[in-house]
Write a structure and sequence with these properties.
9 helices, alpha/beta, two-stranded antiparallel ribbon, five-stranded parallel β-sheet, about 10% strand, about 325 residues, Rossmann fold, globular
């Protein structure tokens, strides 16, 4: 069971993430950002995962191969809203890509967050690489890979299952599927014969489970159990989290609010019912982060955009200096 302090911390991080997402969406609609895509609706799952990661650099710590809805995970690990706003505006001060990538395409080597790519599900194929290093290294570090339900129809996902489960060479890999029931604008019911996508791991002998990703306490416990299993057994685990997609796929589909279960509202109702927070305290959290994001946006508007002369920086190895 989660204690009171942890629940309050989770709520704070969920609101912090959502306010950042809403600011980025507003920027896009006002022409201050080219394209928005993000994890609004996945805060319960993402924050719960991010808080359980062993953060550091190298195989003794956890590696993360995220897709483009990983902001709640990264925020729980310690990223700050201003850096997402910088990436949204594509400023030269963008710490993740220097203004070269879409928003929420993180790259944080000191935390083992592998650069996020906009191509669909390629992270599933890359994840066994770091997990293989960790298998040889020993210890309790694991690799975590996240992706959406549409991507499980691609070959990269099945290659991941295969490489993770080779007899005698099983990998310490947490394979996560966040199921929001859509692949861009195509309903999953037109692509997948079953909503239990985690069961695709069964022919590979991989332990698996399915959970309500909108329920903070349920998904926390599920992740805790899966992670503990991988750390101890050094074998893969496939976990499906059913989540919402609060603002649709991306700015390409309008980024307008849709009538789905909101994990933050559901959590707040429970916090208030259980006497952990009052409505006044909940509202104060929203006010705090909305004001903070206004300050972030005002600052980022004053920061420089990339210079054309820097186009080749970070593409090839930097020239040696004498």
């Amino acid at each position: 069971m989660l204690d009171r302090a942890t629940k309050i911390k989770i709520h704070d991080l969920m609101v912090k993430t959502r306010c950042t997402e809403e600011t980025a969406i507003s920027m896009n609609k006002q022409g201050e950002g080219f394209f928005w895509i993000g994890g609004a609706g996945e805060e319960a799952f993402g924050v719960s995962l991010g808080l359980q990661i062993r953060k550091g650099q190298g195989p003794a710590y956890d590696y993360l191969h995220l897709h483009y809805r990983g902001a709640p995970i990264a925020m729980a690990m310690g990223t700050e809203p201003i850096d997402q706003i910088r990436q949204m505006r594509a400023t030269a001060t963008d710490r993740y890509s220097g203004g070269r990538q879409f928003v929420e395409h993180f790259a944080i080597p000191e935390w083992n967050i592998v650069p996020v790519t906009p191509t669909i599900e390629t992270q599933y194929l890359m994840a066994p690489g770091t997990a293989h290093v960790q298998r040889r290294f020993g210890g309790e570090g694991i690799t975590v890979v996240t992706g959406g339900d549409a991507g499980t129809a691609e070959g990269d996902f099945h290659c991941c299952l295969n490489w993770a489960s080779r007899p005698g060479e099983e990998l310490p890999l947490l394979i996560i599927v966040t199921h929001n029931r859509f692949g861009i604008s195509t309903p999953s019911s037109q692509v997948q014969a079953s909503n239990e996508l985690n069961r695709q791991a069964e022919p590979f002998g991989i332990r698996n489970s399915i959970h309500d990703g909108n329920d903070v306490e349920a998904i926390w416990a599920a992740l805790e159990e899966a992670i503990a299993y991988i750390r101890k057994e050094r074998k893969p685990y496939c976990l499906q989290a059913n989540v919402s997609r609060i603002f649709g796929h991306s700015s390409a589909t309008g980024a307008n609010r849709v009538p789905e279960v909101d994990c933050i509202t559901a959590f707040e109702d429970k916090l208030i019912k259980d006497g952990i927070m009052t409505r006044t305290e909940v509202d104060a959290v929203w006010k705090k982060w909305k004001e903070h994001l206004k300050e972030c946006l005002a600052q980022v508007r004053q920061e420089p955009l990339p210079d054309g002369a820097d186009i080749w920086r970070h593409v090839f190895a930097e020239p040696a200096t004498v």
